[in-house]
Design brief:
Blueprint: H1 23-38, E1 43-46, E2 51-57, E3 65-71, E4 79-83, E5 86-95, E6 100-102, H2 108-119, E7 123-130, E8 135-140, H3 141-154, E9 158-160, H4 161-167, E10 169-170, H5 181-189
Parallel strand pairs: 5-7
Antiparallel strand pairs: 1-4, 2-3, 4-5, 6-9, 7-8, 8-10
Length: about 190
């Protein structure tokens, strides 16, 4: 008689690929935007990141491979478009913390860009995913900018979770689209 003992296996360590942070939220936003476009609700697209191609290998004429490229300039925000006759522009961020959202996740050129959008009558905001709580918030740019400006004065480097609950607007998940952020935009701006 043979005994089958369990085989010891090394525990798998899950690593987070920092290059793909935000892709889950962006996937949800892309699905929502496709729904909005297909149903003639809004025209909102992800902005391409400007890239300078430096080197291309041509193993075959029909199979060119880019082997070296660099970002030309920092991208402004993730998405822009038009909704109910208004220009909208926004950035998506994922957060894996429990208590606060690091201001380091927002770049100075994005703050400057969103300020310009607001000054010219557009709608600017952030959509922030709190992955620990499985919650998504629309946060008007004015709220983000207040914390940004205060951080320059008092050195605070984050926005507390409570601020999202009080000053942000929770996006309730649904069926079509799963993340109907324009419903929240209606409540805030229209």
């Amino acid at each position: 008689m043979t005994m089958n003992f369990p085989i010891k296996r090394k525990a798998r360590v899950k690593t987070i690929n920092k290059a793909n942070l935000g892709m889950d939220l962006e996937g949800l936003i892309n699905e929502s935007n496709t729904y909005y476009l297909n149903n003639n609700i809004a025209v909102i697209h992800k902005k391409p990141t400007p890239v300078q191609i430096v080197k291309v290998d041509y193993p075959m004429r029909s199979k060119a491979v880019i082997t070296e490229a660099y970002y030309k300039t920092p991208s402004t925000t993730d998405y822009n478009g038009i909704y109910k006759g208004k220009y909208i522009d926004f950035e998506c961020k994922e957060n894996h913390n429990k208590t606060s959202f690091p201001l380091a996740n927002i770049h100075p050129h994005q703050i400057s860009h969103l300020k310009n959008i607001i000054e010219h009558g557009g709608i600017g905001f952030l959509i922030v995913a709190w992955n620990v709580y499985n919650e998504y918030y629309v946060v008007p740019f004015e709220v983000i900018n207040e914390y940004w400006e205060n951080s320059l004065k008092d050195g605070r480097k984050s926005i507390p979770y409570e601020a999202f609950v009080k000053q942000g607007h929770l996006i309730k998940e649904g069926y079509l689209p799963r993340l109907n952020y324009l419903k929240v935009i209606d409540e805030i701006y229209f």
